[in-house]
Amino acid sequence: MPTPTEPARLRVGAAKSDITPSDLSGLHPMGRPFERVHDPIHLRALVADDGAAEIALISLDLVEAGDMTDVRRRIEDELGIPSDHIVITATHTHSAPRIGDVSPGALAHAGSKESLEYTETIYEAMLDALRSARAARRPATIGVGTGIADVNVNREVFADGRWILGFDQDGPSDKAVRVVRFDGLDGRPIAILVNYAVHPTVVLGTGELSADLAGVACRHVEEYFDDEAVCLWTPGTIGDQAPRIDLGLPFGAAPDDRQAARAYRAMEAQGLMIGAEAVRVAEGISRTSPAARIRAGQLTIELPCKPGENVMETMRQQDTETVPLRLSLLRFGDVALAGVSGEVVTEIGERLRAASPLAHTLLVSIANDRIGYIADDARFDRPVHSVRGCPVVRGHAESAIVDGILALLEASNP
């Protein structure tokens, strides 16, 4: 194993598998049941090591992944990857199932009997994908870059005397497309990681299973690189961000064929914009390094819990005094994936990046759990959606996230 004074030698492998359910019954946690499959959904996995430490990252085309503690322990038992070196996230497409248990105090869609059975299928798929990714590991380099895509927009709007979900052109919105490229020594990409802040809700309401715009973006990246690379989507500060164009109907309303067709054209167009920008950024990354030392860690903080207000009927919340905030870190040299177990709003991401000592800090929402929205402290002056759906009492989550991630970064230093 390398010592702290010796250069790390990065190895990376990636894998992708189809997780489209064969039976859609009981699997849609939001709105009307799934009637058919529009496009397949996938699991994408990355395994990396530097000779001393090994990490795993899994991205799922699902609306949410609940408490992933049990499966991370199972991965450790069966594959030997430490559970605190594993991050599992969901793209947050609203036209796909959820998996996992709901943590005490979390505001999440309650899992059906069918979704819990589907969860076990996905856990098996995770293990298989990680085995494949590990078997495919080879010497690699890492590079990072940032672009811009104007696909997202702030969705918290004051109209008719109340706060609603809408379109706020002037509201805070992080439009950065952050890209991490892992190449083999031949210069060909093994994996492309994309981090962007938007709710994949373009086709919510069509009654069809879909990976939405995140799936389109990943498909474009993978096709561009001749399907030799795996594209992993990680959700950024999505808590207050909507796509610019969606189905455009009231929640629960069924579209006609023309409306659905327009929504899918919007899904393809917006996903292509993000995917094409990710490709442009990836192609422009000229400096890559084989010497990125890997570090990882996790931290769980019990925060005072508050009940949700005016949330969807399908949301469930156990009456508890505290709710677990799960923080995670996957670090490759000066590149950090900072995971938070909820849908984080824009301002918290901005504060974290400003405070981080590293050149590249990517906030990943819905990492290893989804407890609800995570609103910044100032937002509590307005009864907006991200506050009504936040399970944490004001004054606790924002500092816990920033201070907790900084502590994990400090602990990861040689």
Number of domains: 3
Q: Overall pLDDT, averaged?
A: 95
Low-confidence sequence ranges: none
Give a count of the beta strands, DSSP E runs of length 2 or more.
23
The helix tally amounts to 7
The end-to-end distance, rounded to whole angstroms, is: 14 Å
Assembly status: single chain
Order of helices and strands: EEEEEHEEEHEEEEEEHEEHEEEEEHEEHH
Beta fraction: 25-35%
Helix content: 25-40%
Radius of gyration, whole Å: 20 Å
Largest sheet: 8 strands, mixed
User: Shape, please?
Assistant: globular
With strands numbered from the N-terminus, the spatial order across the biggest sheet is 6-4-3-1-9-12-13-15
Given helix and strand content, the structural type is alpha/beta
InterPro entries: NEUT/ALK_ceramidase_N
Pfam families: Ceramidase_alk
Domain Neutral/alkaline non-lysosomal ceramidase N-terminal: 12-228
Protein name: Neutral/alkaline non-lysosomal ceramidase N-terminal domain-containing protein
How would you summarize this macromolecular structure in one to three sentences?
This protein is 25% helix and 31% strand. With 414 residues, the protein is α/β, with parallel strands linked by helices.
Structure, explained:
This protein has helices at residues 69-79, 113-135, 212-224, 257-284, 346-355, 385-388, 397-411; strands at residues 11-18, 36-37, 42-49, 54-60, 64-65, 86-90, 98-99, 108-109, 138-148, 152-159, 162-168, 176-184, 189-196, 208-209, 230-235, 241-243, 294-304, 315-316, 322-332, 335-340, 343-344, 360-364, 373-374. It has three domains: 11-135, no CATH class; 143-284, no CATH class; 294-411, no CATH class. It is of the alpha/beta class. Helix 1 packs parallel to helix 2 and helix 5 runs parallel beside helix 7 (397-411). It has seven helices and 23 strands. The mean pLDDT is 95. It has an eight-stranded mixed beta sheet. A four-stranded mixed beta sheet has the order 17-19-20-22, with helices on one face. The chain has a three-stranded antiparallel beta sheet with strand order 11-10-16, with no helix packed on it. This is Neutral/alkaline non-lysosomal ceramidase N-terminal domain-containing protein. It holds the Pfam family Ceramidase_alk. Residues 12-228 form the Neutral/alkaline non-lysosomal ceramidase N-terminal domain.
